[in-house]
Specification:
The protein is of the alpha/beta class. It is about 35% helix and about 25% strand. Strand 8 and strand 9 form a beta hairpin. Helix 5 packs parallel to helix 6. The chain binds adenosine-5'-triphosphate.
């Protein structure tokens, strides 16, 4: 499988505060990689560094084999997509109008992928539920057929049935070749659709492995979420 995105010993932060320390990870075409870790572990900052929003102070990010720093809008033009918990919709526009906002995707393809949006086409996005809004964002994103998706808390605060729907759509898109890095608080649900994963703690990757390897250590991983301080026994999933 082709490596789409690679972080090599990335250090990054905000101002003089370093948040990420030597973060190395990669995402290949056609796989779902989950990034786990407690609040404040550095997951969003990692995604920001991978997306070109935060510039690494050391180490580098290679996107499509190119290690030059590029801001997000350039990476998006080259096939990177970013979905965050802040649903990128225009509330005053209808569902169909929102679907037209991405010049790289078509309304028809979006509705094929998420037929549940068909009856909502003429409805103002402001009148959609949170789950419907995130499905709208996902439809527009997947219809554009990006090479790589960075999804930061795709399903935050959504009903379990919507979480399942969204994660299943992520898995299906990966089956068609999309590479995905997903941050997800619902560890078990995320591991059920992931191929591999990384666990972060205090700005470092402390564990990595296949979804099966991480699932076998799920209680230990979840314990770090609850305590926020318990250190993981680092084995890199070997
Ligand atoms: P969560 O699961 O709570 O979203 P996270 O793992 O995504 O957490 P980050 O959001 O990357 O963690 O935050 C890592 C650290 O960086 C935290 O200590 C946080 O306070 C700090 N941080 C995040 N954003 C900023 C910012 N814009 N300016 C300064 N510090 C920040």
């Amino acid at each position: 499988m082709d490596v789409l995105l690679e972080a090599d010993s990335v250090c990054a932060g905000y101002g003089s505060v370093e948040v990420l320390h030597d973060v190395s990870l990669n995402v290949r075409a056609g796989e779902v990689v989950v990034l786990l870790g407690s609040n404040g572990a550095g997951k969003t900052t990692t995604v920001r560094a991978l997306a070109g929003i935060v510039k690494p102070s050391a180490g580098g990010v290679k996107w499509l084999g190119d290690g030059a720093f590029k801001p997000l809008h350039k990476r998006v033009r080259e096939g990177m997509a970013l979905i965050t918990e802040h649903r990128a919709i225009v509330a005053s526009l209808t569902v169909e109008e929102n679907l037209r906002l991405n010049p790289r995707s078509s309304v028809q393809r979006s509705l094929e992928l998420f037929p549940e949006l068909v009856p909502l086409g003429k409805r103002k996005a402001s009148l959609l539920s949170g789950g419907e809004q995130q499905i709208l964002v996902a439809a527009r994103t997947f219809a554009a057929e990006p090479k790589l998706l960075l999804a930061d808390e795709l399903s935050l605060g959504l009903a379990p049935i919507i979480v399942t729907r969204l994660l299943r759509s992520v898995r299906m898109a990966a089956e068609s070749g999309l590479g995905v890095l997903i941050i997800e608080q619902q560890v078990r649900a995320a591991l059920s659709i992931a191929d591999r994963g990384y666990v972060m703690q205090h700005g470092r990757i402390v564990l990595e492995g296949t979804a099966a390897e991480l699932s076998a250590r799920i209680e230990e991983i979840e314990a770090t979420y609850l305590s926020g301080v318990k250190e993981m026994n680092v084995t890199n999933g070997q």
